[in-house]
Design goal:
The protein has 521 residues and is of the alpha/beta class. The protein starts with 7 loop residues before the first strand and ends with a helix.
Length: 521
């Protein structure tokens, strides 16, 4: 554990985090995440439960080949089974075989769990805790005792709940982690109960919270305020049901708001968050505090005007402190300040008196009234600004395109084909391509035509394609907004198109995507 007055961070993304719906990591993923978390400065990383599945066993075997610096790996498991000594319990043996310096075991601290889930006597439950901790300590391990359902147990029978901690203390546990396993306890209760435990076991109390009431991070911080010296949580709040205490929220709150240093380089927070999301194949939460892409986004004209004068007006910290950045959004709510700051962000020179500012603003408001939305389409927005400033050179001149879809009477055979005719460097090019659908075929035909003169197009891929009906009341005649995200392998950008025809809207977004990339080539 750290020195008195400090707080250690115990990351359980690789174990508790994987209990969240849709979260799964390969063995290689787990090793890479552990290395990333260790380099970030986590004090403890819980690698998994070696007694629960072969992948976790393999993780600990592989982990022994790697250096995690000052970070300690922990193996997780339960107290021994009833009626068998800890030294003879196979699950306890696997915890030792994991070869980690730290072992974390959980036990029951709520009578309901002891009586109706375990089905053992109160005395046997206490002995299971005492024997398990004592045996693991005798094997030279740093032992953390996770008191499962502690807050529910304490509110039901405080004397019994405290007795479970005493059993772990008598056996030599290094820390007692109070678990709000159902996530239903409020911050004031967390604080008052943690304070009672801290008074009995000073300097040895940890906290493990869940987010079922949206209080995971708040409850962890409340426990720290009451004396807890360890926080258990997961990156991005992964976990069962609604998730665990989110470390991307708790860590900057500790370091920037409470003045408790926990990691050496907080500016890497967003990078680490996105890395874990990527390996989990999860879309990052754009509204996540500190690390989300909208955490420092400003849209309203009055807000943007104030931020332009001093960022403190609407930003509680400097975005760079957590590796994020300010983002000025442009929409029908925008004022001149939005346009000026967005142009500056894009590296374009504009003054407040420039007539182009008003032209851009009026153009955006007119387009958004037609169904456009530029907040997630920065590339289309930049092209719009460049066009108004006379800085845009079209990639080609369209002469026409045609799409067709054929289906036989039995429906067993379908085909989509598109033909594109463009003028490029005064050269007329006609190309035809097939695709899985009309938009895919159109994209393929356009790329085929341009690739002859612009080989870099081969490295551009479509990473996301979204369609939204703007005015559904018109039925099949409704206007359609198409949003596209493209990537060249290192950068990505968003473009948008709107039309009564989904193919035309898609074409607009596709063309913007390639023209934007051409402007950077």
């Amino acid at each position: 554990m750290k020195e008195p007055g400090s707080v250690s961070i115990y990351d359980t993304t690789l174990r508790d985090g994987t209990q969240g719906e849709g979260i799964s990591f390969s063995l290689l993923d787990k090793i890479r995440i552990a290395q990333k978390l260790a380099s970030f400065g986590m004090d403890y990383i819980e690698g998994g439960w070696p007694g629960s599945n072969p992948k976790d066993l393999a993780f600990f075997a592989e982990a022994r080949k790697h250096d995690f610096g000052k970070t300690k790996l922990a193996a997780f498991g339960s107290t021994r089974r009833a009626g068998i000594a800890a030294a003879e319990d196979p699950q306890i043996a696997q915890l030792l075989e994991a070869g980690t310096p730290v072992v974390t075991i959980f036990g029951k601290s709520w009578k309901l769990q002891v009586e109706k889930v375990l089905g053992v006597s109160h005395a046997e439950n206490l002995e299971m805790i005492r024997d398990s901790v004592a045996y693991l300590k005798s094997q030279g391990k740093e032992v953390f005792y996770d008191a499962e359902h502690f807050f529910d147990g304490y509110k039901d029978d405080a004397e019994f709940a405290m007795a479970t901690l005493s059993a772990a203390a008598e056996a030599g546990a290094d820390a007692f982690v109070l678990c709000d396993t159902k996530g239903g306890t409020m911050p004031d209760e967390i604080a008052s109960i943690t304070a009672v435990v801290e008074a009995c076991f000073p300097g040895k109390v940890g906290i493990h919270t869940h987010n079922d009431c949206g209080m995971g991070a708040a409850n962890a911080l409340a426990a720290v305020g009451a004396g807890a010296i360890q926080i258990q949580g997961t990156m991005n709040g992964y976990g069962e049901r609604t998730g665990n205490c989110n470390l991307t929220t708790v860590i900057p709150c500790l370091q920037l708001k409470l003045g408790i240093p926990v990691v050496s380089d907080l500016t890497r927070l967003r990078e680490v968050s996105l890395f874990v999301d990527e390996l989990a194949n999860c879309h990052p939460d754009v509204r996540a505090p500190f690390v989300g892409s909208t955490a420092f986004a400003h849209k309203g004209g009055m807000h943007v005007n104030a931020v332009a004068k001093t960022s403190e007006a609407y930003e509680h910290i400097k975005p760079s402190a957590v590796g994020n950045h300010q983002n000025i959004l442009v929409s029908e709510l925008s004022g001149r300040s939005n346009i000026l700051l967005k142009a500056e962000e894009l590296g374009l020179s504009l003054s407040k008196q420039d007539p182009a500012v008003l032209r851009v603003l009026e153009k955006i408001k007119a387009l958004e009234s037609e169904g456009y939305e530029f907040e997630a389409a920065d590339a289309s927005l930049e092209l719009l600004i460049r066009k108004e400033l006379g800085l845009h050179a079209p990639l080609f001149e369209l002469q026409g395109y045609h799409c067709s879809f054929r289906r036989d009477s039995a429906g067993s055979s379908t085909s989509c084909e598109a033909t594109v005719t463009i003028l490029n460097n005064k050269q007329s090019l006609v190309t035809t391509a097939e695709g899985d659908g009309p938009v895919n075929a159109l994209d393929a035909a356009l790329r085929k035509a341009l690739l002859q003169l612009h080989p870099w197009i081969e490295g551009i891929s479509l990473s996301d394609y979204k369609v939204r009906i703007v005015d559904g009341g018109r039925g099949t005649a409704a206007r359609t907004r198409v949003h596209i995200v493209s990537s060249d392998g290192s950068d990505s950008w968003g473009t948008v198109g709107v039309s009564d025809n989904i193919i035309e809207a898609s074409w607009m977004a596709l063309v913007d995507s390639l023209e934007f990339r051409a402007s950077k080539h």
